[in-house]
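G., the chain you wanted modeled:
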Amino acid sequence: MSNQIITEIHVDLDNRDKSTALFRLFLAVPVLIFLSSFSEFADDLPGVLGGLLVLPVVLSMLFRNVYPSYVLAFNKALLELSNRVNAYVLVLTDEYPSIEANQKVRLIYPEIDGGKKLSPWMPLVKWFLAIPLFLLGIIYAIYGFALTLISWFSVITKGFYPEDKAEEVIKVIAYWNRLYGYALLLVTDEYPSFSLN
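Predicted structure as tokens:
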């Protein structure tokens, strides 16, 4: 099994709903507000970054060498919700993002409590080591956005999402999930690849 977060997104390629795709950003406003409510605490509560709990993990890893299971459950649920919203906003699926888990979007995490322990001091430097990955991720995000625009036009005019473009957009999402898993969620010590594959 991989030591990175694995992203599985099932894309609706054919028989797309043209009318909802046309107004996708407006339709997504309620769930975007719900998702953004988790990051409202970022100004008031130290250790919260974009809604993800980071500081409790760092402190627990440093002083106890244990990943708190309740923090992991929260961060998993929040990242999966974020991925469901992304899949909807990026027109990968017509299914409105549920606030509960579903099979359209699934993230598989590396084993944390197994025989191999995470390094207790790595959380102090992972954010720094990940800076080049974040910079490259911005370029990948622009690439994914351009592919999404092309695909959006295809969905609203022809009713289908080009499969090759869907695969590339999913690779961009998976890249960011691997990066979050390494630098923010701290679920792996394995440095993510710079590649989209």
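The chain has a mean pLDDT of 89.

Shout if anything looks off.
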